[in-house]
Structure formats: structure tokens, C-alpha cells
User: Which sequence fits this backbone?
């Protein structure tokens, strides 16, 4: 359990001496849940931000249990708790905007502004970390399991906001060369342009049309500002069209540009005209049973995913009928006409990309049937496609599950074909994102087969098997099942000798599993202690905090503490307290306090290395959590 760090000084927006409560406690929590769920609806992202979006989605998934427990317990929020949750709400709203931008924003813009967008992700991590750090779990009636999970997530958030990842250097250089070359040199750029177009996925007519619409949106938002940047974006788009053989010089193609850009420089769209789900101006507003209004296509997608509540109010819907809101639609049309804003027309036929998506969804039943084919080639192709489809959207996952895909996939886990195993377990990992599928996967007998792949599969299959066990272990009954079926032994082996990614997946799964007492003993018997010591010693791996978090959980169990509590391990903790990062110090202090409380000789041994001075410094200048741990150790030492 990584203890949270002291939050950075609040920004002017966040530093409020008294809390102005804009909504009731329950409404605030419901608003947070709605924001998280709507943000998690985005599944496809631009290549340049795909990795960061995946990280952010993982954080959002992990914060859900906290919000759900808050909703169920409905505690009265203190001013501090309300302020933190309000700050979390701002962070989650910013996360949703970021994910949406990376989902349907201009690929060219996102590539050109890669570092700027990365800074926005860092800002979201900073706000989430500040909101969750020091959250008063006890007074909020949060369970120990959820508390441990959130604190581990917060440690990872802190590390993520400090990462110094940079953009794809080849991509950056290609863009720079293209933008700097003059007209006479353009013919020499074709190879670079083709490479760029492939990397940015701007090669087909459908992709270029979608990019054109995204650029139109940027032009609207900028209102004539940042002219040089806009010109670069338009120039690149036109050149991509040239190499694709599209004879179209107008950046907007068949999408007309609103004249309002010149005549309405400070255009503000009334909030009532925006769909609460997409935050876009509505073209076909409809009213649901709760009385809220949404864009028809957006709310229909929400309902089709199995939801039966109002996204905004979270009220259960008495019926699923959608009533056209003619009054609001007329107001929107009048406003658009007055401000010369052209609403996006709904095409009578779906765009090429949409047709392709629909066709793939129509293929799902035949692909599920293909899993049971007697022909290995048919099985291989079917499971490969289902792996891709199960990653794309909640709708695809529901179609696969409803079509009997989960039992068929479980049947393929025993395949002797390593690639089939890898694609199968990864498909189940994708499907397990949805909670109801976790139960279907477990009850279908998948856990022993996933453990077997964890033992003998390909490196990628082992990594994804560990990730699948972590996902399934989010359900408490599965923690015990995975432990009793022998899942901890191969996880420990992956932690000891797997790839860097495999070790991270194994550590996350082990942490979640040893939240139960029985699994603490099983993990220790499987050799988790020497494996974790190896992780701590591997500085390049950067997993010291995760290893110490697992040690902290294990040290609360008497049998495990007997193996952990050695003088050599105490000396390792002392070195981390003296020379580690602030987070290392917090985690090491927590473990030492747990061990020293139960074994005075171990604490005495640690104090022999001049620890008094370090504890005094941390008690004065350390982070808030480290200060508390250091003071507790000082008090304990005085009693010896």
C-alpha cells in the first residue's frame, strides 16, 4: 500500500479557504460516476496518444470502486472530503475532454501538438493525485480493499505525472522536414509523406474525410486565431490528399465552412443546446423518462450498451421510449440561423468507416461460430478478429458475449497453438472489462486454463494472462478461487523472470490477490519474498514502490512476517529511508513500522544504522504521510 504523498500547493482555482457546495453530497458523487462512465465509453484513440489514453482509462477503471462505495454508503461529507471530491470532479471532466479529443480529434493537430497534449495528461494526473492524496477513508466508510487499491493507483499516478516520455522522434523529424521544405522540394517529400500518412492512419478516403471534419472543428474553435498553426494543418491535409489521389484543394472538401467565423468572433453556444454525453450541439434532441434531453444517437448508444439509468441524474428509467424535443430543436435552429452556424447534417447513408464498423459487427456471430470450427485456420482467423473487435467498443463486447463468444473462447484456451492461446486469452482480457463478463468467464471454468497459459504460454500470452487474472480478481470471490487453483505460483515466477511488462502485470495481480489472508500465505509459500527483493534491487525496473506495497500487505500476516522479518531486509529498508525517493521513504517507513510494532529487535537493529537522524528530518520535512510514519517510529523507539 503506497502511502499517499503530500499534495503540491493548490492552484488559485483549487485554493479555497471555505467550501462553497454547489450540489448535495449524493449529487456530487453521482456526477463523478456519470463523468467516469461517459469517459470510459471512448475506446478508440489516435495513434500518437494511444498509450497515454490507455493509462488514463486504467486509472478511471480503478477509481470506480471508490465512487461506487461512496454512493452506496452515502456518508456526510466533511468540507475537506467535499473539496477533494470536487477537485476530483474537475480532474475527471478534464480527463473526459482529453479522451474525447484523442478519440475523434484531428490526427494532424494531435501529432503537431503532441508535447502540449502530453502536458494536459500530466495536469490531469496532478489533479487526480492531489484530490485522492490524504482522502479521509475512515470517515467515508471506504473498505480497506478499495483504500489499498486507490493508494496503489495514487502511487502510480504520481510516477506517471513525473515521467519524461517524449513523442515519436521519427514522426517529429518527418513533420519538421515536411513543414520546412519549400514548393520546389515537394516532390522529394513523397516517401516521407507516405510514411507520415501511414503512421497517422490518413490514407483512405474515409480517414481523410473524417480528418477534414475534425479540422473544420478546430477552425471553428480558433475563430481566426493561431493562423500560422492552422495553415500548417491545412497544408499537411492537402498534401495527404494529393498522395492519396484525391483532387481536392479545399480543406473542407464537401463540408462547407460556416460564415459565422468572420461575423461572430465570440460565439458561445448555450449549454442547454449541448448533449450532456458528447458535449456537442444537438441536431436531434430527445427526452428520456427522467425528463433530461440528449442527442438521439448518443442516448441510444447508452441504452444499447445495457444501461437503464439516466446518464446525468442516474435515476432509473421507468421506460426506454425517446420523445423528440421539438421545442428545443426549434430554438437550436433559430439560434444557428441567427448566428449563421451550420449544423452538421446527418448523412442518409453511413460513412464508409461506419459501414465498415457495421459490417464487422454483423460478422461477430459468424466469427463466434468460427471458434468451434473443425478447421484450425478458421479458428485462428476468427479468434484474431475477435481479439481486435473485443478491444474496440462496449457494443462489440456485448455482442460477443450475447452471441455465446465467452464459452467458445474458453474452449480455445486449451489449444496447443501458442498464437491461438495468446489471442484467446487477450480476447477474454478485453471482454473482462465489463463486470458482468467477469462472472461469465469465471463460471465458465476459465481460471485454471488461464493459469496454465500463464505457466507455459508465449511471453505476450503470459503477460495478458496475468492482466486477465488481475481483472477477474476485482471480484472478491475470484481472489480466493485464483489462489486456491494455484495462480500465485506462476505469477511469482513471472515476477521473478518475466519481461518488464510481465513483471508489472504480475505485481499488480499479486497485490490484488494478497488482499485476502489465505493468499498472503500462498504467495509467501510460492516464493514471493525473494522475487520482490529482486524487484527492489533492479533499479532500472522502477517498481520499488509496488514491491514495498506488497511487502506491507504481507507483513500484516504473522506467517509471512516471519519470512520477511530478517535483519538483511531491515537494512534494505534503512537504505531506502536514507537514500530513496520521497515515495520510497514513505513505503519503507510503513513496512518498517509494521515490522517494528510486532518485533522490537528488528526495530532496534534498524536504529543501529543511525536512523534516528533520518527519522527526525522526515518528521520535519517529509511528506504528510511520511511525517506520520516517522513520528510513530520515533514514539515506538522511545519506548524501547
Assistant:
Amino acid at each position: 500500500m503506497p502511502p499517499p504523498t503530500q499534495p503540491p500547493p493548490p492552484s488559485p482555482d483549487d485554493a479555497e479557504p471555505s467550501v462553497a457546495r454547489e450540489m448535495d453530497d449524493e449529487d456530487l458523487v453521482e456526477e463523478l460516476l456519470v463523468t467516469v462512465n461517459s469517459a470510459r465509453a471512448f475506446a478508440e484513440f489516435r495513434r500518437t496518444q494511444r498509450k497515454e489514453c490507455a493509462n488514463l482509462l486504467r486509472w478511471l477503471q480503478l477509481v470506480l470502486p471508490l465512487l461506487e462505495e461512496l454512493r452506496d454508503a452515502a456518508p456526510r461529507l466533511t468540507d475537506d472530503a467535499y473539496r477533494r471530491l470536487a477537485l476530483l470532479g474537475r480532474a475527471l471532466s478534464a480527463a473526459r475532454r482529453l479522451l474525447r479529443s484523442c478519440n475523434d480529434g484531428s490526427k494532424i493537430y494531435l501529432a503537431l501538438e503532441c508535447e502540449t497534449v502530453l502536458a494536459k495528461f500530466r495536469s490531469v494526473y496532478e489533479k487526480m493525485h492531489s484530490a485522492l492524496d490524504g482522502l479521509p477513508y475512515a470517515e467515508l466508510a471506504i473498505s480497506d480493499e478499495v483504500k489499498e487499491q486507490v493508494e496503489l493507483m495514487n502511487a502510480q499516478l504520481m510516477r506517471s505525472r513525473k515521467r519524461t516520455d517524449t513523442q515519436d522522434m521519427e514522426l517529429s523529424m518527418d513533420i519538421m522536414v515536411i513543414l520546412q521544405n519549400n514548393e520546389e522540394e515537394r516532390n522529394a517529400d513523397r516517401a516521407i509523406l507516405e510514411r507520415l500518412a501511414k503512421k497517422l492512419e490518413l490514407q483512405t478516403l474515409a480517414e481523410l474525410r473524417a480528418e477534414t471534419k475534425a479540422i473544420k472543428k478546430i477552425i471553428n474553435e480558433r475563430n481566426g486565431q493561431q493562423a500560422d498553426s492552422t495553415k500548417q494543418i491545412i497544408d499537411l491535409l492537402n498534401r495527404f490528399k494529393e498522395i492519396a489521389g484525391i483532387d481536392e484543394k479545399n480543406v473542407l472538401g464537401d463540408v462547407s465552412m460556416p460564415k459565422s467565423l468572420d461575423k461572430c468572433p465570440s460565439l458561445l453556444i448555450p449549454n442547454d443546446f449541448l448533449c450532456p454525453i458528447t458535449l456537442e450541439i444537438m441536431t436531434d434532441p430527445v427526452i428520456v423518462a427522467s425528463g433530461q434531453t440528449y442527442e438521439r444517437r448518443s442516448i441510444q448508444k447508452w441504452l444499447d450498451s445495457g444501461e437503464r439509468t439516466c446518464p446525468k441524474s442516474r435515476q432509473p428509467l421507468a421506460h426506454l421510449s425517446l420523445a423528440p424535443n421539438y421545442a428545443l430543436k426549434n430554438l437550436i435552429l433559430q439560434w444557428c440561423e441567427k448566428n449563421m452556424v451550420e449544423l452538421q447534417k446527418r448523412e442518409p447513408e453511413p460513412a464508409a468507416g461506419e459501414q465498415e464498423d457495421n459490417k464487422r459487427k454483423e460478422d461477430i456471430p459468424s466469427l463466434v461460430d468460427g471458434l468451434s470450427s473443425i478447421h484450425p485456420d478458421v479458428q485462428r482467423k476468427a479468434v484474431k478478429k475477435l481479439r481486435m473487435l473485443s478491444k474496440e467498443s462496449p457494443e462489440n463486447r456485448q455482442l460477443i458475449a450475447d452471441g455465446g463468444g465467452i464459452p467458445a473462447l474458453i474452449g480455445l484456451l486449451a489449444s496447443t497453438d501458442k498464437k491461438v492461446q495468446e489471442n484467446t486469452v487477450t480476447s477474454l482480457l478485453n471482454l473482462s472489462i465489463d463486470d458482468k463478463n467477469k462472472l461469465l468467464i469465471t463460471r465458465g471454468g476459465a481460471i485454471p486454463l488461464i493459469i496454465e497459459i500463464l505457466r507455459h504460454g508465449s511471453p505476450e500470452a503470459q503477460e495478458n494472462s496475468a492482466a486477465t487474472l488481475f481483472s477477474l480478481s476485482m471480484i472478491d470471490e475470484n481472489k480466493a478461487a485464483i489462489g486456491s487453483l494455484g495462480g500465485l505460483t506462476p505469477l511469482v515466477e513471472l515476477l521473478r523472470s518475466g519481461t518488464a511488462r510481465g513483471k508489472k502485470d504480475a505485481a499488480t495481480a499479486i497485490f490484488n490477490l494478497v488482499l485476502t489472508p489465505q493468499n498472503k500465505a500462498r504467495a509467501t509459500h510460492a516464493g514471493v519474498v525473494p522475487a520482490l527483493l529482486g524487484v527492489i534491487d533492479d533499479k532500472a525496473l522502477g517498481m520499488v514502490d509496488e514491491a514495498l506495497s506488497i511487502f506491507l500487505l504481507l507483513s500484516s500476516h504473522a506467517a509471512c512476517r516471519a519470512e520477511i522479518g530478517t535483519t538483511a531486509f531491515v537494512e534494505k529498508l534503512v537504505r531506502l529511508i536514507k537514500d530513496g525517493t520521497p515515495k520510497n521513504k514513505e513505503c519503507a517507513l510503513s513496512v518498517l513500522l509494521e515490522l517494528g510494532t510486532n518485533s522490537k529487535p528488528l526495530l532496534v537493529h534498524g536504529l543501529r544504522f543511525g536512523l534516528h537522524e533520518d527519522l527526525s528530518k522526515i518528521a520535519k520535512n517529509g511528506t504528510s504521510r511520511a511525517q506520520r510514519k516517522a513520528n510513530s517510529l520515533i514514539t515506538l523507539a522511545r519506548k524501547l
Q: What stands out?
A: Residues 573 and 588 are 5 Å apart (CA to CA). Residues 1-18, 182-188, 249-267, 347-355 have pLDDT under 50 and may be disordered. DSSP finds 33 helices and three strands in the chain. The first helix runs from residue 25 to 40.
